Amino acid sequence: MSKPTAEELEHALVKAKAMREMSSDPDFIAKSFLNCHYQATYLEQVLHAAEHYINSGLGEREHTRLIQALKKAREIDDKSAKLDHQELGLS
Questions:
Q1: Which of 33, 40, 5 is nearest to 19 (CA)?
Q2: pTM above 0.85, yes or no
Q3: Which of 23, 29, 36, 46 has minimal CB crowding within 10 Å?
């Protein structure tokens, strides 16, 4: 399946938001699409951080940025799933 163009994606996001606002989403397709798009933005940050880390010679600063991006992506995923993990202080 090909990736949608920027215009196609923007159109789909507008339509999905409208469906949610009008409570016209009986099969949760718009909700699922919007959630996937939201999470994908954070996963793209992880991808960029990982690529930068690898291409930088595995630098310590880049490693920290990668860990932070991973942590943020996990927090967003947990928040959208309404999960609450007990903090063990091991970070």
A1: 33
A2: no
A3: 23
Report the C-alpha gap between 32 and 16 in whole angstroms.
9
Task: State the pLDDT at residue 81.
Answer: 82
**CB distance 19 to 30 below 8 Å:** yes
- Residues (pLDDT < 50) of the chain are 88, 90
What pLDDT, on a 0 to 100 scale, did the predictor assign at position 86?
55
Residues 33 and 6: their CA atoms lie apart, in Å, by: 15
To 5 degrees, how large is the angle CA 46–CA 49–CA 54?
125
| Alpha carbons 88 and 84: distance in angstroms, whole number | 12
